[in-house]
Design goal:
The protein is mainly α and 117 residues long. It is 83% helix and 0% strand. Helix 1 packs antiparallel against helix 2.
């Protein structure tokens, strides 16, 4: 009984992932939105759902070994979609934002381990 229940959960989860991927792409193309932003919002919603622990455990067991590859592909494609020439239109404010963000992340990554442990 355990194997059949676990198998049905896995099959439902596979359909959910495939269907949600098509849904995200369709909505982002229909509404002319960024695919990366659509994926990030979807991940935020699913990750904060009250029943997401079952999905996280199942995901880790099924595809945990290949997740770093997915991250690499995801952010490579997102970076390839970045238009460097449009950064000149942003000007000094955009440059200050980028420098401030990088500096903040660096300081945060350096200080947080000392503050928490």
């Amino acid at each position: 009984m355990y194997v059949s229940v676990n198998s049905s959960i896995k099959q439902s989860y596979d359909f959910f992932l495939f269907g949600s991927g098509l849904f995200r792409l369709g909505i982002s193309n229909l509404m002319n939105l960024s695919e990366i932003l659509t994926c990030m919002i979807f991940g935020l919603v699913v990750g904060n759902h009250k029943h997401s622990e079952k999905l996280k455990d199942l995901e880790e067991a099924e595809i945990g070994f290949i997740l770093p590859l997915f991250y690499l592909l995801f952010f490579t494609i997102a970076g390839a979609n970045l238009h460097i020439k449009s950064l000149s239109n942003v000007g000094l404010i955009g440059l200050l934002y980028i420098v401030g963000r990088i500096t903040g992340k660096g300081i945060g990554a350096y200080l947080v381990p000392y503050l928490l442990f």
